[in-house]
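User: what does the whole thing look like in 3D?
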Amino acid sequence: AAGVIQSPRHLIKEKRETATLKCYPIPRHDTVYWYQQGPGQDPQFLISFYEKMQSDKGSIPDRFSAQQFSDYHSELNMSSLELGDSALYFCASSLGRSGTGTEETQYFGPGTRLLVL
Amino acid sequence: SQKIEQNSEALNIQEGKTATLTCNYTNYSPAYLQWYRQDPGRGPVFLLLIRENEKEKRKERLKVTFDTTLKQSLFHITASQPADSATYLCALGASYGGSQGNLIFGKGTKLSVKP
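Assistant: Here's the predicted 3D structure for the full assembly of 232 residues, as structure tokens:
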């Protein structure tokens, strides 16, 4: 079965540079979530989109922005990168209104490992 | 503030035994709770979801209980195997379906099953 796809898988940037992470949800999934996981930490929710509209916002820095496109893929844009932004960034998708009782289940991608030097 | 605690950072058990992981939460009233498995450097993998009106859920060797009075969930792996070794994350969700539902994760319990 198709899973969530994230690209790139690894990314190395310098401080103050910008980065763009991409997420392709499972086909027919309409909701995308972004999480940040620092070393030895639990995933922290950043932002989510449902039907191309922002639906919830967590601890996302103002330097970051995200959007969901008409084909439901999402991009996380990160500017003025800082050393502390080094982390694993996960995208998850779910089927928002399936009516099957599985709407809450989030399926995670393999993550993008970002290293800021 | 909302707080989720998983019983321990690490749990070591012998193969064939039952592993029991605990998730406690405070200042929160989740509509549902999920358990995920995460291997190093990989994304969390969904295991089980249990809703606030359910007491117990089972899937193969896995069992989850949810006590909203105690604000606690127990996650059991019976007949544990070395392949079950991983970090297990408890996650709380705010609402049913729709566009909401970002998860709040606990810090996880690293389970090691020795042969």
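In plain terms: The radius of gyration of chain B is 14 Å. The longest strand of chain B covers residues 19-26.
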